[in-house]
Amino acid sequence: MRSIARRIITRTRRSPWMRCPTVILLRSRRRTLPISAPFPKPWDWTGRRASWIAIPPCLKGCASVGVMPSATLVSRTLPGSLSLQLTCRCARLIQDRSMSKAKTTSEPINVLRRKEYACDDQWISQFLQRAQVGHLATLWGNQPFITPLLFWYDADRHHLYFHGPVAGRLHTNVQQNGRACFETSQSGALLPSNIALEFTIQYESVVVFGVLHLVEDEAEKHRALYGLIEKYFPGLSPGQDYRPITEAELKRTAVYAFSIESWSGKRNWPESAKQSADWIPP
């Protein structure tokens, strides 16, 4: 039985179509076959000296990651007949390698690929103080949601603040998962070109990563809400130009604080798009 399993394992590793786990029902010890099953469903093969059934539920092969599967005896039904269960780590290895590759190519998450467009922390801070509308991404399970909203950046606490109703999608998402991402941007002139893929636009943007939570402290809620009013309606004072926030209004308003962990700024503001001197219009 061990020699049969060894030959099966060796031939299985060489097959690019290997699925795992695969159950092989051998009817004879006289002959073993490569376990190659290029079909996503069970199929039968019958020969003069041997017959077996392959059940290949896994669509990824051991050969693709170069691992050796292991065989264990499942059952022995008739004399000269046995059932082997082939298992391997290919699916897990593929996932681990994908995650490892993602980490090496995307961490830290706030690093820009185009270094010439990157902006420093001072520019990002100033941009957040003047940008008007942002987009906040939160999660419900594995489903992301984008919420467009107004915001206030508190440079002293290095927080972003938002407000909204005490019920709704954003409120529910934050209570389940505080991980979030925020984006705000501004566009300028449209820049045409005589090259199809050189059409562009003037733009500047900031992306922020961090943790979002509901603000419970009343003093912090007042600070955030008045900060929002001061940003969008500068020069107006509570008690003189408008009625101050009441206790009832505060209770029915949710305030969110976004604790910033990392950010990145990007600016591409050319005077014109690239042109080709070689192309002459007909």
Keyword list:
single chain; 282 residues; alpha+beta; Pnp Oxidase, Chain A; 2 domains; three-stranded antiparallel sheet; 6 helices; 13 strands; elongated
Tell me the layout of helices and strands.
Blueprint: H1 2-14, E1 22-26, E2 43-46, E3 51-54, E4 70-75, E5 82-87, H2 90-106, E6 118-119, H3 121-130, E7 134-140, E8 143-149, E9 152-154, E10 159-165, H4 169-176, E11 179-191, E12 200-214, H5 218-232, H6 247-251, E13 253-268
Antiparallel strand pairs: 1-5, 2-3, 4-5, 6-13, 7-8, 7-11, 9-10, 10-13, 11-12, 12-13
> How many strands, which pairing sense, and closed or not: the largest β-sheet?
8 strands, antiparallel
Number of strands: 13
What is the mean predicted local confidence, pLDDT? 74
Low-confidence stretches: 1-106
H/E element sequence: HEEEEEHEHEEEEHEEHHE
**Which structural class do you get from the secondary structure elements?**
alpha+beta
Q: Fraction of residues in helices?
A: 10-25%
CATH class of the largest domain: Mainly Beta
The Cα radius of gyration reads 31 Å
User: Per the principal axes of the C-alpha atoms, what is the gross shape?
Assistant: elongated
Strand content: 25-35%
Number of helices: 6
Report on this model:
By secondary structure, the protein is of the alpha+beta class. The chain folds into 2 domains: 92 residues, no CATH class; 157 residues, Pnp Oxidase, Chain A (Roll). It is 24% helix and 34% strand. It is built from 6 helices and 13 strands. The strands form 3 sheets. Strands 6, 7, 8, 9, 10, 11, 12 and 13 form an 8-stranded antiparallel sheet that branches. A 3-stranded antiparallel sheet has the order 1-5-4, with helices on one face. The longest helix is centred in the middle third of the chain and has 17 residues. It starts with a helix and ends in a 14-residue tail after the last strand.
